[in-house]
Amino acid sequence: MEIIRAIGAMREVAGRARANGQRIGFVPTMGWLHEGHTSLIGLARECTDLVVVSIFVNPTQFGPEEDFERYPRDLERDAVLAREAGCDVLFVPDGGEMYPEGYATYVYVEGLSDLLCGERRPGHFRGVATVVAKLLNIVQPQCAVFGQKDAQQSVIIRRMVKDLDMDVEIVIGPTVREKNGVAVSSRNMYLSGDERVQASALYRSLVTAKKMIEAGERDVAAIVAAMRQMIESQPAARVDYISIVDSETLKEVTRLDGEVLIALAVWFGKARLIDNMVFTIENKKGKG
Amino acid sequence: MEIIRAIGAMREVAGRARANGQRIGFVPTMGWLHEGHTSLIGLARECTDLVVVSIFVNPTQFGPEEDFERYPRDLERDAVLAREAGCDVLFVPDGGEMYPEGYATYVYVEGLSDLLCGERRPGHFRGVATVVAKLLNIVQPQCAVFGQKDAQQSVIIRRMVKDLDMDVEIVIGPTVREKNGVAVSSRNMYLSGDERVQASALYRSLVTAKKMIEAGERDVAAIVAAMRQMIESQPAARVDYISIVDSETLKEVTRLDGEVLIALAVWFGKARLIDNMVFTIENKKGKG
């Protein structure tokens, strides 16, 4: 596995690979790799010849009060995990080269970026879209892999790639969970042992929603209320939002029909955890 | 010369050309081609193997009160001129395919987009940056050619390409002028015969600025005042702005030093004409 730091060098390796007819698969990350990331690297490995993983804690997607400074970083550890997972090139760009003096250009996906997490984290998805556009232009992959755990991010990246006519296939890998159901996330390292136990309520609330829907429940408010009660019974939990939205427009739905996303964000101490599930609901004719 | 209308077909032709080792040169236009455009096509011809010209009157760069509807369009005429100038592929995308339902993504170059023409035309340069990003992603040129007449656009596109790590060289072709000095522009067709004569004052005012600077004048206000007087002596002229700015940041300068851009916009009847000149001013040491 090669480690590349300069944008020009990364571009050259990618250009050479493409000229040789190799397919490039790309997994952008902020490092502190976990099983979620390694599963995405595995997916990239399956469908391409050269797997590039980037590690870049992107400053433009953090708010001024957020955890940019204390976000966990450990390149040595990440390099081992990436290599073992099947990474060929680890791209670790420098902040100064990514955002040099005079930097001024941002990519913004209107509407989608202002809902759910975007409403609570102004500018976050503008930073995400911008850095992903930059990385795709540098790495030139045929295929880029993102995790379903960041559902809103996936919807926004798909929209951006389609809208800006970027020639890359976006693949979404399933959420990887710990044994107790907690979605694996770099930010889980902020959790105390007790908080980690309590955090399993997020997954349980999504499973409860699933059961309610399967049993015929179609009342959005009733489902959200049941989920909220389940989560708030955990003393450390502070619900940021629980929303049932259209899986493409991310707008809140008033009735359950078609593909919906149940998404939530909950604070446990210093950690803001997110989780979600997608449901396809087919209502009987006449009712729908 | 081939005429292509579908994005997918254009992408395919470009991909095949690149796979065959051809260099693609690209000239994006809004049609109603004139000698300014054909000179840019000539420049693209010089340094590449396959010259693509796009014709697309881009709705997102027009304000609600602007001339999108009445902007001149004549594909048959344009096709002849493009072919004669050396165009290999004329790309004429459809508005519905460029901005389908649900379209949401915009590229914005902060700061630069809000000055000069951007101050008078809110959203204009957002539309320009967005459509150019899209076209570059579709046409995949190694080299794209823009005209110095649209000086602010050139600065913004250069900034965007650098910031978003787009792998394309931006070439700026010199302004082409009519015999009386008027910069050629599709919008000149809005001018009456008399207005066209009066419009030559724009170029004369820039030449006057040049002479003043060469004679040692360093007072920004004095140069602008002389230009304004010269232009306002034309009865049909209504000055929008005359500004002397840093050629890279586009911020107004208080003293003449280094590379400066003198840019102006003036209304003649229904036509808003722009023009500019770049000056490199070397002041003696001690004074600078």
UniProtKB/TrEMBL annotation, chains A, B:
Catalyzes the condensation of pantoate with beta-alanine in an ATP-dependent reaction via a pantoyl-adenylate intermediate. It comes from the Bacteria. Beta-alanine binds at residue 61. It holds the Pfam family Pantoate_ligase. The keyword Ligase applies. InterPro entries: Pantoate_ligase, Pantoate_ligase_C, Rossmann-like_a/b/a_fold. ATP binds at residues 30-37, 147-150, 176, 184-187. This is Pantothenate synthetase. GO terms for cellular component: cytosol. Belongs to the pantothenate synthetase family. Homodimer. The reaction proceeds by a bi uni uni bi ping pong mechanism. It is found in: Cytoplasm. The keyword Transmembrane helix does not apply. It catalyses: (R)-pantoate + beta-alanine + ATP = (R)-pantothenate + AMP + diphosphate + H(+).
